[in-house]
Amino acid sequence: MKQKVTAVFDIGKTNKKFFLFDKNFTEVYKEYTSFDEIEDEDGHPTEDINALQNWIKKVFHTILKSDKFNVKAINFSTYGASFVHLDQNGEILTPLYNYTKEIDQDIVEQFYNKHGNDLELIRTSGSSKSPGLLNSGLQLYWLKYKKPEVFKKIKYSLHLPQYLSYIFSGVPLSEFTSIGCHTILWNYETKDYQDWVYKEGVHNILPPIVSTETSLNMNYNGKRVKIGVGIHDSSSALLPYVRSVKKPFVLISTGTWSIALNPFVDTPLTNEDVKADCINYMRINGKPVKSSRLFLGNEYKIQVTKLTEKFGVDKDYHKTVEFNYDVYFEILQDFNHSFKWESFEHKNMPVKTNYLYNNFEHAYHHLMVELVMLQVESVKRIANAEKIDRLYIDGGFSDNDIYIKLLSHYLRGMKLRTTKASLGSALGAAIAISDTKLNSKFLRKNYALKKHVPFIVND
Asked: What CATH topology corresponds to 3-229?
């Protein structure tokens, strides 16, 4: 008898993944691939949308013929800030423009001059002011005024998760997480599109909005399959926590970027939040997720490389260094900020890096103290620790002993837990279209949940 499964395509910028999950959300099959980027008309690298589409169809058609699995549902998790523009025949009109692409500054200035105070627009949309296409809504404005002949042909503009769903369903739809994640399209105060969307007529090419939990029961190649509408990957990665943890929490997703996420807010961003570079992601029910970003992993890599070269140790030696209380105590005596950051500016950093020690262990501990201080600022920017007493850490830094011990110490009012969320956004996409109820046991079973307690301070 065939095993009933949910299929998920989890599309990252580099790796394209396909998973099958059983009824308990256990992975029973996976397949990975990657594609070389192509260039758009301006020579900027971008996703090969045709290669991606062909791979997705091939993989799914193959699995439908499997003697082992019976696919009952399919959903899609992808990176955001990316539109696929379709003409009236459903054909793709443009390259899948990369969200790193910078556009003409005159268009950006024209947009903000025409549509009001940029601080207010950024605040109510939960976006940041970007010179490029990271705010995907700006792409529609750019097309209208820089490529009007293309814009006139657009029947629908679909965010990437919804386009992948469209490949299978043929039904053009929009959903909350893609609209609400740094697009400058959505107004979190009015819970509707921003005024500029209507004034520019952009709403005419945006399909009807449905809940992220929506699915379409369709006959696909002779098989009855429930087709999800897709979900933004950051919102998807958060979903298993939201569904299984009943008390308020903050999740820090660590990697190249360290993103602190607070899904327990009911109000739009303030001007102070915007100035501190906070943005909103969106839950599947349309509620905001207040977030604070820090280029922590990137800075860590830069500084560790320098320390490795200075002290002549193996490039992986830093991975073996564990927290040493005596070293930490020594560092605190007459503490001075000694690292000049390259990924961002901070009021406490010196004009140049000052190496205060003659061994790697002390210098590395000092680096981690300063980085964790920045992380603590990031968490406090989005959450009051007196009201939210749970903190989850996933990603690369969850394995860093010094980071975890220092963070649990500086945020000792919060109960800190680390998780291993290797399936991340793929698992969230499967959960989004499921009726299964989750509880705290889900994290313990599927995320290798581990509790941490603050170290004891010696007198």
From this structure: Nucleotidyltransferase; domain 5 (3.30.420)
